[in-house]
């Protein structure tokens, strides 16, 4: 079942090859994982007569699903680099403890989130921008989706550890199985069984559960040196106090994304009505697709940098930063050109409603104007997280979303920009936040890495 030892050694071999061997399977896994939600939206958006409003309703549930991912990141985003560093140090027991602490916290948190969503979903959805019309579809989707919270958190959270163990192909299969199942079940439940929006949610729950079970199988295997053990899953603050500061970065990135989604929904409903809530739902879907390869490259580089940090190999960290920045920059430039030239095509993937096409195309061109600068945000964040620079990672997560996007989203519509002000906040934050993050990383981390192998042993680790 497992690959050779050489394949999961990040301390030797070509850095581009090592990072790509991590990133490409991860990219495919994330692409397939993205299909969980994107396929739902495509099928829902093309429902006869109700498609546009149903898509708007499902879009209102995005902040809730994003918050679920935020809590997944709080533990997994913090535990994964520490797991990789422990592997680089050769400390198997320590690595295993981080794995088990994350798994336990994901289960406990998922149960808590289930009950919060179960009992308070109606006021939450109205707070997030629902109208009386769109609430019906949002509730139809969410009341079934919440039964898959545990599966979703385990599948996503444990996948990072599978990749950090050096087995990205197995990690890819973990997500691939569930996503293929979702693609098959969606049309069955939505159209054949005439279940509509709730059918999409049920298909997603089943698929996420299958992914979670496959991930658990990996860590319960006797062949795996890093195993899940029930007695290690009880909260241990010796490990949590190390994980959570790093995980706060991922939590803030996801949590602030949820906050921005909520504000966008509310402001667009107030200034443009339900139609523009549908537009932002489509834009968010397109953004997820285009951002995915860059995010996968960033994520694939993190265990490589963390491993070499633990192993005391600073030159391999520098090579990782240079290669990751270059390849993400090339990709984001190409992606930006594609979305600017063909916005109507990407809209047509999600809806055939002509009333959404013209305003959607104009909004996409504004929203994606600063997409290239995501290279610098993702690159800087990856370095800070990989090398245990939690304060910097947290600050730059807050800078882009909370300090820049939130005020602009609230202020620009009232300053004469109308709905365009909501979409304009994104490129401004990408440019300012991305450059600030990367330049700080370059001068405070990259330039100060020691020249010789082994020199990291004397740094703050």
Structure, briefly:
With 461 residues, the protein is mainly α.
Strand content: under 5%
Helix content: over 70%
Q: Overall mean pLDDT score?
A: 85
Largest sheet: none
Number of domains: 1
| β-strand number | 0
Helix vs. strand class = mainly alpha
Q: For the record, give the distance between the C-alpha atoms at the N and C termini, rounded to a whole number.
A: 34 Å
Q: What general form does the structure show?
A: globular
Number of discrete helical segments: 16
- Helix-strand string: HHHHHHHHHHHHHHHH
Low-confidence stretches: 1-7, 457-461
* Rg over alpha carbons: 21 Å
Write the layout of secondary structure elements.
Blueprint: H1 15-45, H2 51-60, H3 62-89, H4 92-127, H5 132-145, H6 149-164, H7 168-192, H8 196-220, H9 237-272, H10 274-310, H11 314-341, H12 343-350, H13 354-367, H14 374-386, H15 390-411, H16 419-444
Describe this structure in words.
With 461 residues, the chain is an all-alpha fold. It has one domain. The protein is 80% helix and 0% strand. Helix 3 packs antiparallel against helix 4, helix 3 (62-89) packs parallel to helix 6 and helix 6 packs antiparallel against helix 7. The longest helix is centred in the middle third of the chain and has 37 residues, at 274-310. It is globular. 58% of the residues are buried.
Descriptive labels:
mainly alpha; 16 helices; 80% helix; disordered N terminus; disordered C terminus
């Amino acid at each position: 079942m497992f690959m050779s030892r050489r394949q999961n050694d990040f301390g030797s071999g070509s850095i581009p090859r090592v990072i790509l061997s991590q990133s490409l399977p991860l990219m495919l896994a994330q692409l397939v994982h993205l299909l969980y939600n994107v396929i739902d939206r495509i099928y829902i958006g093309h429902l006869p007569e109700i498609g546009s409003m149903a898509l708007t309703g499902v879009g209102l549930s995005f902040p809730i699903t994003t918050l679920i991912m935020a809590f997944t990141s709080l533990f997994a985003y913090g535990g994964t680099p520490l797991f990789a560093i422990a592997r680089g140090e050769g400390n198997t027991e320590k690595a295993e403890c981080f794995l088990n602490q994350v798994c336990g916290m994901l289960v406990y948190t998922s149960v808590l989130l289930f009950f919060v969503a179960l009992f308070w979903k109606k006021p939450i959805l109205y707070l997030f921008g629902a109208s009386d019309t769109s609430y019906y579809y949002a509730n139809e989707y969410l009341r079934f989706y919440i039964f898959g919270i545990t599966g979703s958190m385990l599948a996503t959270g444990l996948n990072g550890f599978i990749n950090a163990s050096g087995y990205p192909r197995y990690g890819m299969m973990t997500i691939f199985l569930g996503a293929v199942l979702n693609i098959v079940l969606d049309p069955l439940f939505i159209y054949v069984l005439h279940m509509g929006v709730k059918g999409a949610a049920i298909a997603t729950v089943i698929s996420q559960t299958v992914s979670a079970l496959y991930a658990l199988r990996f860590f319960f295997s006797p062949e795996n040196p890093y195993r899940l053990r029930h007695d290690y899953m009880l909260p241990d603050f010796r490990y949590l106090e190390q994980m959570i500061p790093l995980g706060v970065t991922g939590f803030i990135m996801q949590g602030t994304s949820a906050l921005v989604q909520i504000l966008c929904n509310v402001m667009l409903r107030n200034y443009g009505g339900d139609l523009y809530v549908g537009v932002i739902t489509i834009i968010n879907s397109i953004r997820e697709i285009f951002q995915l390869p860059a995010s996968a490259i960033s994520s694939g580089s993190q265990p490589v940098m963390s491993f070499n940090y633990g192993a005391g190999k600073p030159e391999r960290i520098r090579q990782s930063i240079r290669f990751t920045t270059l390849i993400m920059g090339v990709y984001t430039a190409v992606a930006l050109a594609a979305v600017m030239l063909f916005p109507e095509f990407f809209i047509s993937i999600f809806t055939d409603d002509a009333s959404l096409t013209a305003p959607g195309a104009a909004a996409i061109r504004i929203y994606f104007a600063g997409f290239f600068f995501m290279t610098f945000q993702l690159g800087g964040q990856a370095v800070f997280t990989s090398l245990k620079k939690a304060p910097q990672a947290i600050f730059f997560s807050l800078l882009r979303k909370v300090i820049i996007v939130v005020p602009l989203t609230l202020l620009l519509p009232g300053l004469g920009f109308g709905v365009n002000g909501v979409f304009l906040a994104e490129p401004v934050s990408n440019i300012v936040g991305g450059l600030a993050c990367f330049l700080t990383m370059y001068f405070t981390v990259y330039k100060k890495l020691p020249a010789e192998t082994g020199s990291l042993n004397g740094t703050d680790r």
